Structures are given as C-alpha cells and as structure tokens.
Amino acid sequence: MTHQTSEPPWRPLSERVAGLNGERELVEGVPDYLRPHLALWSSRSMTGFPDTARAVELLIHQNLNLNPQTFDMTQANEVVLLDAVDAALRVNRIMTGALDPTVDERTAEKRKLWLLHVRDLQNILRSAGSAWQVKQDYDGLERRVDDTVVEATIATENAAPSDASGHLRRAWNAAFGYQPNPALAYSEAVKAVEAVAIPLTIPTDPQPTLGKVRAHLELVPHKYILGIADKHGSPASAESVTKLIALLWHGQRDRHAGGPTTSPINQETAQAAVHVAVLLVQFFSTGVIKKL
Q1: Strand pairing of 132-134 and 141-143?
Q2: DSSP string for 141-188
C-alpha cells in the first residue's frame, strides 16, 4: 500500500460545507453503518470457503449457532463480529497458502478468490474510517497505521538479519494487532535492537544486553560515527543513537518486577517503543552507524 499525500482526505459534502477538513478520527468498534457490511463479509467468508465457520468458532471459543445455509452474522455483537473477521482471515490465510508460491493449482485458484474477498474487506474498513485494517500478511486485523510507516517497517524487516526481523515482526504484531500484548511488544522491540546492536558493539560479552550496549556507547562514543553529517559537515557522532537506546532501555519499566519504579507497559508506550526499535534496527542493519 502507498499512502496518498497528493490529494486532501475526502469528507462528505455536508462536512465540507460546514468547514470541516483534514483527516477524520478513526472509528473504534463496529458502528451501526459498518455492522451490516462486516456481517455480510463474514457470512460470505463462511459460505464461500468450506470449513471456515467451524474453524472460526473453534478459534474464538464461541458457538455462533449459525444457519449453515446463510451464516447470518448480523446479530453478533461487535466483539464477536470483529473476532470472527480476524479469525476468518487467519483461517483462510492458512487454508489458501496466501503467501506460498508453491501451492497446487486448485489451492491457487481458491487463494485468488480469497484475496479478492480480502481486498473487499480492506476497502470496507478503509472507507468506513475504521481503526482496524487487514495485516500485510493477511493473518488477521491490526490497528490502522499510516501506510508510509508500515512500508518503512517492512523495508527495515527485509534489510535486517533474520533474528532481528523476527523480533521486530513479533513486536509489531503485539503492539498493533487485534489482540495486543504491550509487555510482549516492548520486550520484542528490545530484543530486535539487541540482535543488531550487540554484534557491532559488544560481540564478545558473554551476557550481552541492550543496557550494556548503551553503557559501551556512552563510554567510548569516539569509536562510532553516523552516516549523517553534523552542522560542520563532518560525520555525526553516535550520541543521538545512544540516547534512543537509553530511552528504549529505561522505558521498559516492567523489566524488574517489584522495584520502586516498576510499572506495567501500556499500549501507547509499547507502540512508541516499536517505532523507536524500527529506527534503531534500520540504523544498525544498514550501516548508518559505523564503528571506527
């Protein structure tokens, strides 16, 4: 996806006449105008793709009592409806091998139909201004994030070593996924940065941590430069990177349970940590920070 910046965000005529412009706030939950469209999409998922209904019920631990002829979801409450949409995406991603180029011809045809169905869901959610969108890997729903941010994150994952990429992907899913886990998101964000920073800074340390990376950079800042010029035209110092690492390290307030400054990680903090981690992983994995 590409975030379109050349055109102003669209608003209904009544809102434009009233002087309202700019982006609308994203809508949480399932408002009345969205419900019938999500319900119809869910029903079509279960009638058009065999075994989806049973798998969805098992995944969300709900007996939906659906008519096998219609699979009518219009009476489901918003939590169950979103759960069902999220589960249907996951079930069919697995059944159709959504990202697997080696599937047989029959499965490939089924996948083609499913991806068209998913595209319809993407359009429904985006047009409705929903806070939810389909994940890039079609594995479920996630909170809507600006497309340029998503693309930058994907580019960073692709450039990073596999272990860092895996941690970063898990951090993103835990921070922005339909069933978020802020503590896990923050922990995985830290591990993603450790995976790229430790080999460059403290490769021989028997028990390396991001805290030790921070301490090392603060102790010998003259040994590192950035591939960005400072105001004098010389390579910038790694001080800004060190500060970001310190921010990420000290911000993990649930790391030592029971301490005087211990506090749980909330959703906003986890999301911020993931954004910081994406930048740091990009810097380390692409050589923006260099050792002299």
Answers
A1: antiparallel
A2: EEE---HHHHHHHHHHHHHS-HHHHHHHHHHHHHHHBSS--HHHHHHH
Per residue in 157-173, is it b (16+ CB within 10 Å) or e — as a string? beebeeebbbbbbbbbb
Residue 130: the pLDDT is 93
Name residues whose C-beta falls within 8 Å of residue 199's C-beta, 6 or more positions apart in sequence. none
- Compute the Cα dihedral for 32, 34, 37, 39 and give only its sign: negative
Q: In the predicted model, what is the mean pLDDT of residues 234-261?
A: 84
Kind of pairing between the strands at 224-229 and 289-291: antiparallel
- pLDDT at position 3: 39
CA-to-CA dists, residue 242 to 134, 190, 220, angstroms = 35, 14, 11
Q: Is the pLDDT of residue 79 over 50?
A: yes
Q: 242-248 — which CB contacts under 8 Å span 24+ positions?
A: 242/214, 242/217, 242/218, 244/276, 244/279, 244/280, 245/193, 245/197, 245/210, 245/213, 245/214, 245/217, 245/280, 246/214, 246/218, 247/276, 248/189, 248/190, 248/193, 248/210, 248/273, 248/276, 248/277, 248/280
pTM flag (> 0.90):
no
Query: H-helix or E-strand containing 237?
Result: strand 235-237
Q: Which residues contact 109 (CB under 8 A, 6 or more apart)?
A: none
Q: For the chain, which domains are there? A: 13-143 (no CATH), 147-291 (1.20.120)
Residue 205 has pLDDT above 50, yes or no: yes
Assign 81 to helix, strand or coil. Answer: helix
Task: Tell me the residue length of the chain.
Answer: 292
